[in-house]
Amino acid sequence: MAALSLHNFNHLVSILSSPSSSSFWNLSFAFNNEVRFKKGKFLVFLSTHSNPKILKSNKKSRFGQRITPYDTDQEEEEDEDEEFDDNDDGMAGDDWLMNDDFAQPHEYVVNGKKIKSRKGSGREGNRRLQEQRKGSKALKSRQGLIISEDQMDVRHGNDGLKRKSVGNSYRSSTKTKEAGSFDVDGGRMLVSKTSRENRYQRLSDEIDLDEKWFPLLDYLSTFGLKDTHFIQMYERHMPSLQINVCSAQERLDYLLSVGVKQRDVRRILLRQPQILEYTVENNLKSHVAFLMSLEIPSSRIGQIIACAPSLFSYSVENSLKPTVRYLIEEVGINEHDLGKVVQLSPQILVQRIDISWNTRYMFLSKELGAPRDSIVKMVKKHPQLLHYSIDDGLLPRINFLRSIGMRNSDILKVLTSLTQVLSLSLEDNLKPKYLYLINELNNEVHSLTKYPMYLSLSLDQRIRPRHRFLVSLKKAPKGPFPLGSLVPSDECFCQQWAGTSLDKYLAFRQRLLLKEFAKKYEK
Fold first, then answer.
1. Which family does the similarity line name (predicted)?
2. Strand 164-165 relative to strand 168-169, pairing
3. Closest Cα partner for 419 from 445, 401, 438?
4. Rounded to a whole number, what is the distance in angstroms from the first to the last CA of the chain?
């Protein structure tokens, strides 16, 4: 996707109103987002396909499932300086998401010590840690224990101390400690003690920074971690910064070897810094083997780890395997379908699945009269259902469907066919599409039971352009607009419904998108 900053609106119109026949770029605007523009400037996003939010049926998602041409509210977390909530495990940031407890973490032996691995200590634990840290620094300051660089040099003396670690050497005899290097894009970094202390000055102001951590910090910096990220790691799990750089490199190298992307390492460390403590032989390999046993393709293992890194803190035998047995024996998911379910929602492995399943099963049974088989189908198609809050997620959407005239039996048909409706925004998605269905398409609510996917198609990129195009060609029926014309691909739509070339439709859609964008921009 490319972004163009255009200073002249008329110039934009001239560029986009007459695309060439060889290739077309379709405008994709953030219509549902609050976007602020500087006077005289605005941003236009260009995409080579129908819509970044439309998921085409011939593509696959990051977890391997076939993607249908549906609209979705879930966005990728790509912000460079993103912060992670204490409960975050890669799930979408909707406020109705999971509110259940997690299974108990496992104890591992790390560097000869027995450590109980856990997810972040939570806001309360972080607050206590910050208070302790501030109190510690204040006490040291009063006692005169925070010393200057010159005092540090005198204290160390010329004892000729030499330390080795992954190409790092320290020479105190010359009063400068040169850290050897890490390869970064083929280059070499030689960092002196003074420059390192200057580099981590902000970090040292926030935490009790030990110079022994410098080699590890330098190494982790190659994955894009900054001072703010190290502070988050420190507050989540301080011992993770005390790991020998050789051990850390061995463990991260293994994760990279099983498919974790370089760009995902930072996200993993911020969510689960304890992963630096888990040994390859005693932990990482056994958990990867467990995922493979679920018939998950090796090409998807890295993506699952990036989405739910906390799974390494749970015992395979005492936690993960019992969860799998519960899904098969109690929920009723077929063993051959289990790998697909995990790929759709890796967090299902680290939930208290008994609580999640029972509460939602009882709710849907009571609220809609849904039989067990229908609820199992919902979970198989959209296992994120087990993460959504009942009060803030499921119930408001069910009540909305009731408010537009649907009976419980109709709602059940829609949810069984397209469970992801429960993940769509009410204000930005469901309500606008309903109003367009009634007011513009002259259709009725009961048509949604036959074409529930209407609710997941993009209003700006699919529904409105196709409707307006057929109207412009005088091929739209006088009665209810056929929702079946919204389902097929652009090529099939042009052949079967419009009877015209794809290029002509794409050009029309571009002009329509630009017009709609201009209206919103003028407001």
1. Belongs to the mTERF family.
2. antiparallel
3. 401
4. 26
